[in-house]
Amino acid sequence: MKNENAGFTIEDVIAHSLTFFTDGSETSSVVANFLIYELTVNPDIQEAVREEVLAMESFSFESISSLSLLDRVIQETLRKYGLFIMSKECTKDCVLKAGGRSFPVRKGQEVIIPVYGIQRDPDIYPDPDKFDPDRFLPENVKNRHPMTYLSFGGGPRLCIGYRFANCQIKVLMANLLSNFRLVKSPKTVDNIKLSPVMFFPMPETTIWIRLQKL
Length: 214
Hints:
The protein has 214 residues and is of the alpha+beta class. It has helices spanning 10-41, 43-54, 61-65, 68-80, 115-119, 138-141, 162-177, and strands spanning 86-89, 94-98, 101-105, 110-113, 180-183, 210-213. A two-stranded antiparallel sheet has the order 1-4. A two-stranded antiparallel sheet has the order 2-3.
């Protein structure tokens, strides 16, 4: 029987390191696809992000990390195209309470969290189909429950690759927007339809845009 108090083994370290890179590859590229689409169909937001990128003094980690508008754009992309569901295993008996009702959960039971439904709830995010990065301005975030945004999970089980994924998407977009303008093509759709057979949000068809060299 495994001793849970023994700490990490070398196998644990290798497994987590591998997961850190493999899980952050396809997921980050999918998020970047949705982000590129939203900036294409919202040219005013695209131009504002470009101005922020071009104002950087140097292309460094510190400069990339300071791009607050791009950060909000990424968060809004993840809100709009977030996970469908997230599951967690209960580690101790507890009682969940909501709407005047109590729901006992036993240790070992799996809890399914409807992330997509929460992040598209109009009572939490008015006009949820609208792409609005201002939802993540500090003054707006503090007025919402912290568990209403769960694209990277939450609490002590927050995604281990959160900062890595966020940074690599920012690097991609900073490079792209400083060199190209994203414009619609004749094949660009007005609304993206999500595939009904995928575990996490994926476009049902190819996303088409055009790149114009600046």
